[in-house]
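Re: Re: token formats

Sure, here are both.
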Amino acid sequence: MQFTRLIAVRHGETAWNVDTRIQGHLDIPLNETGLWQAGRVAQALAGEDIQAIYASDLARASQTAAHVAEAKGMPLVHEIGLRERAFGEFQGQTFQDIQHRWPDESVLWRKRDPHFAPPGGGESLVDFGVRILSAVDRLAQQHQGQQILLVAHGGVMDVLYRAATRLDVQAPRSWHLGNAAINRLLWTPDGLTLVGWADTSHLDQGPRDETTA
């Protein structure tokens, strides 16, 4: 059977998500909310028939996927091809920092210039997209007729959505890329098809604290 069902999940929240700080390839762990979200993802997927779990090797994705893998008693396979886009010198900077320190480059970045690569070893959107879709094609081909889980990053989810809906890399974004959202796609040799997007119903009950325990 030449199809593979994909469940694609963005990692849980990190402190840098809250600060609007670019993470890229820097290894930032989940914060308390992100750990709670990862647990909720695991609960939501507990009844799913999943044959393999793959995650970016960066901690925020790996930690999220580990909750699912532990709950299902399955191995977690790290896939470097699912890493977030490399942002070079933009990594560690807030959106405001980037606009202030690199005003010209910031314009190219915000306009989604497909060939712009952030200074200091960043990836262009074109190169990033090729990397992600090549990794997904390779993994999907290994699991034809099955369903697999991919846990990665916001930029990765964006690439998958655009590929599945045939949207140009520069098209304005009108879809959500929420932390710990569950997205569903179908892979065939002809490409990706969107099945469901940005399901966050498992996160409707907020984290418990001293006032809600």
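Second one below.
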Amino acid sequence: MGYIYGLIVVGLLFTILHYFTELSSKQKLGVSVLFGVFVLLAYLYNTTSANEQEKILKTVRDFENGKTLTCNNKEINSTFYTLSVGTYTFIGKENTPYYSDMVSASSCR
């Protein structure tokens, strides 16, 4: 559905450039290319963000299922760490050698 909206926006852009501006053909082409590059960069950013978020969620699921994770060359498991869901950070539990140690879930493999 997003692609349809994108095509509608591109169509409106071309219509506006064609009927309501006094730009030369080269200037219209430049605006169109610039708009296309902007849309491509937005798509790549969203794709990268979605992939990173999926990686973090998989890491959190693995931690909650009792698996041991490797993050920043540290072994992370539920025996020594708890999960802060708001920030997706593993925090060392009291009375453990890792007390108050904080490790981001995004740093896990």
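The first strand starts at residue 69 and ends at 71. The chain has one domain: 2-107.
- S.
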